[in-house]
Amino acid sequence: MNHMSKTMRRIILYVLGLFLLSFGVSLSIRAGFGVSPVSSLAYAMKLTTSLSLGFTTVLANLLFIVIQVILNKRIELNEFVVQLTISFLFGGFMNITLFIVQMFPTPETIFSRTIFLIVSFFVISAGLMGYFTAKLPLMPYDALTYAIHEKFNLKFSKAKISSDVINVCIAGGICIIFIQSLGSIGIGTLAAAYFVGKILGWLLSHYQQPLLQWTSKTERAA
Q: Where are the transmembrane segments (predicted)?
């Protein structure tokens, strides 16, 4: 019973983290300054097709899984199933949160758009804190970063920067070719790449330990 209780807490934290992450990305889309690097490819695919953001999120994650297979030259079936399941969950959250955010008043001034963007940084960071603290399977994009880290013997931070840069460049290229603009890429993309890491570091230093204590807390038997 105690084991299940701990597992359920981690699952709750993980799912809540993914939901907040998707909500933060949706807020950044609403701000209109460009989305975070992790979602830039999915949003570029949405802008250049008639597909929903949730579906393009799944497609982008499938691509990340394929690249992992190429780099690792293998992938376990259970790992593939888990990553694919997470992709569909996150894609569903993207559709839900984007629908919710679209009901908010449209930010029409630079000031209001900036507020949306800043709030998105904190929401994304809070989501990442929950997602990482739960210590459950990584999403395909983060698993790809780890694969790059292993394959090329890079520090994880450098592997993260590499995957972000590649993702943003591909997204920008797609938008330039098909809609003749940068589309999903903007000042908000660069700002997210810098500030989300800073905010996440602060949140982890202040709140990760209490979250870890909560997820590992043992319930007393009745």
A: 50-71, 80-104, 110-132, 161-179
